[in-house]
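Open question from group meeting: does this chain pack into something compact, or does most of it stay loose? Before anyone orders reagents, we agreed to write out a predicted structure and look at it together. Recording both the input and the output here so the notebook holds the full record.
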Amino acid sequence: MAQILAPSTQCQARITKISPVATPISSKMWSSLVMKQNKKVARSAKFRVMAVNSGTINRVEDLLNLDITPFTDSIIAEYIWIGGTGIDVRSKSRTISKPVEHPSELPKWNYDGSSTGQAPGEDSEVILYPQAIFKDPFRGGNNILVICDAYTPQGEPIPTNKRHKAAEIFSNPKVEAEIPWYGIEQEYTLLQTDVKWPLGWPVGGYPGPQGPYYCAAGADKSFGRDISDAHYKACLYAGINISGTNGEVMPGQWEYQVGPSVGIEAGDHIWASRYILERITEQAGVVLTLDPKPIEGDWNGAGCHTNYSTKSMREDGGFEVIKKAILNLSLRHKIHIEAYGEGNERRLTGKHETASINTFSWGVANRGCSIRVGRDTEKNGKGESQSQSMPEN
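Structure tokens returned:
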């Protein structure tokens, strides 16, 4: 639902102190303040317990925000990998003796693959290879997030390690010469914790029909903006190439865009951004789902649309290159659909701005097609400065 423009110099936000997002415990703190304001139970045992809890929480927050850099060269590295479902993100922390600037400076590590659905119990060790580093927006300082892929102890990529093959392709000299740009539009839905129902929706009920919510403002139309904004800033702090965000068509649903990114960087950045979003919603007490169709019926689904172009597509005559690429995609439509993840048959129905999952189609500025070509691309005969030459629905 958004346009991703050509690469530009990204401003790196500097966050000196990250204020914790509200947690379920914080609601108790709020209750104590309300009770104090009402002066009904100011002297009760219940209120005194609340006050003690508030003090404990404040001390924990002080420790979470503690700056350790004046006292040690050590940093905390959060190793992140993709779990056995192919969509879940896992992570664990380790101490590194000094700050690092490149993944090659980090040691390999391991985890229990039998607990993530990636190895049998009798041979459970899976090895993590550090591949990309981002600044840690949660711990700050020199602490880092580390995107890893996973291998057997013998050095073979495990079946869920898709990054290994992608890196081989992107390192091919012919591919490198084409400077492939990716712009990824990640849609997601926020759910209430206890009932798994979209944020802002009445429990067991429905809001008004779609129409007022897309890119909207207002307490009756926009639900979860603080989470979206917190994620936006955290990604900029981390060094992720996030290029924008917006409220989506279904209330409680949001989108952000990563890119344009070149080659394998696109995958590293989108996975790091997903991990950060998981952590922020965890702190906010809200459930994140990437389900393609979280609510059945007359509601938009949530996709991850991929915008793509190559150097040849962006040069004079590029529109013919684009059409040839679209033809090649059409010949492998079924194979591609199978690789796009589970549940898309519920979303790709031909309704709600989607194409039918069974039929390949393309068009200019047509959101009901499998492949949508930008209007300017058709007009100029090439992709020019946009990476939105070929978004696939």
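Observations to bring back to the group:
The two ends are 11 Å apart (CA to CA).
The chain has a mean pLDDT of 86.
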